[in-house]
């Protein structure tokens, strides 16, 4: 038995103009920089509407729906504004660290 991989057959390969093809992402979906001193709501609104930015939006929407709407969103914004910036991540809780032992 040979370990060699047979060469690819490119005879069925076709080309397509990128401009005519279109795409799933537009420049409107990109994130925008937020200025210094902007609020959490401004920062959150400027996140990209693709990939992890969209995932975070959907997560917040699910939490808000599960916890009672606008009051939960207000609390998230307030707590994020009060949180100090940490230089290192918090210590792992004992329940999580003992699980892998």
Please, could you describe this protein's structure?
This protein has 101 residues and is mainly alpha-helical. It has a domain at 46-81. The chain contains five helices and no strands. Helix 3 crosses helix 4 (70-82). The longest helix is centred in the middle third of the chain and has 17 residues, at 51-67. The radius of gyration is 23 Å and the shape is elongated. The two termini are 44 Å apart.
Q: Considering DSSP H and I runs of 4 or more, what fraction of the residues is helical?
A: 40-55%
Give the number of DSSP strands.
0
Alpha-carbon distance between the termini? 44 Å
Q: Beta fraction of the residues?
A: under 5%
Label the overall shape: elongated
Give the overall pLDDT as a whole number. Answer: 76
Please trace the helix and strand order, writing H or E for each element: HHHHH
| Low-confidence region ranges | 95-101
Number of helices: 5
Class based on secondary structure composition and strand pairing: mainly alpha
User: What is the alpha-carbon Rg in Å?
Assistant: 23 Å
**Describe the biggest sheet?**
none
Key structural traits:
101 residues; mainly alpha; 5 helices; disordered C terminus
Topology:
Blueprint: H1 18-21, H2 40-45, H3 51-67, H4 70-82, H5 94-97
Helix pairs in contact: 3-4
Give a nutshell description of this structure.
This protein has 101 residues and is mostly helical.
């Amino acid at each position: 038995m040979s370990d060699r991989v047979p060469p690819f057959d490119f005879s069925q390969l076709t080309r397509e103009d990128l401009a005519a093809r279109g795409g799933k992402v537009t420049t409107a979906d990109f994130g925008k920089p937020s200025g210094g001193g902007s609020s959490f709501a401004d920062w959150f609104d400027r996140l990209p509407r693709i990939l992890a930015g969209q995932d975070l939006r959907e997560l917040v929407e699910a939490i808000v729906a599960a916890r009672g709407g606008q009051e939960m969103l207000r609390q998230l914004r307030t707590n994020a504004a009060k949180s100090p910036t940490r230089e290192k991540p918090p210590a792992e809780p004992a329940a999580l660290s003992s699980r892998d032992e």
